[in-house]
UniProtKB/TrEMBL annotation:
This is Thiamine-binding protein. It comes from the Bacteria. PANTHER family: UPF0045 PROTEIN ECM15. Belongs to the UPF0045 family. InterPro entries: MTH1187/YkoF-like, Thiamine_BP, UPF0045_domain. The lineage of its organism: Bacteria, Bacillati, Bacillota, Clostridia, Eubacteriales. Residues 9-100 form the Thiamine-binding protein domain. Pfam families: Thiamine_BP.
Length: 102
């Protein structure tokens, strides 16, 4: 049976710090937080996509900013993409990328 989700959210967190190493360190902390939430997620080269309950995903997006600041980032910018269908059935991560990873 196909699992249906009411929302899919992609977030790109852009720490405003001085070095690439710091960017990677802070983004790694944000991804670790996303992983800890238990939502289904996929890390890509520019953004992380999550799927699940809309309210939960919006809370995660909010917390990602706080995680970046707590990790030592004085300023953070984020780009967020949202696909929301209250009755469920947005395209899943698997539907979008599986055919490219065989």
């Amino acid at each position: 049976m196909k699992e249906e989700f009411p929302a899919s959210v992609a977030i790109q967190v852009l720490p405003q710090v001085g070095t690439d190493e710091e960017v990677v360190r802070i983004v790694d902390e944000v991804i670790a937080y996303i992983k800890s939430t238990g939502v289904n997620y996929y890390v890509g080269p520019f953004e992380t996509t999550m799927e699940g309950d809309y309210e939960q995903l919006m809370e995660i997006v909010k917390q990602c900013q706080y995680i970046a600041v707590k990790a030592g980032c004085p300023q953070v910018a984020s780009y967020v993409k949202i696909s929301y269908k209250p009755q469920g059935g947005v395209l899943t991560i698997a539907q979008k990328v599986t055919k490219y990873h065989r």
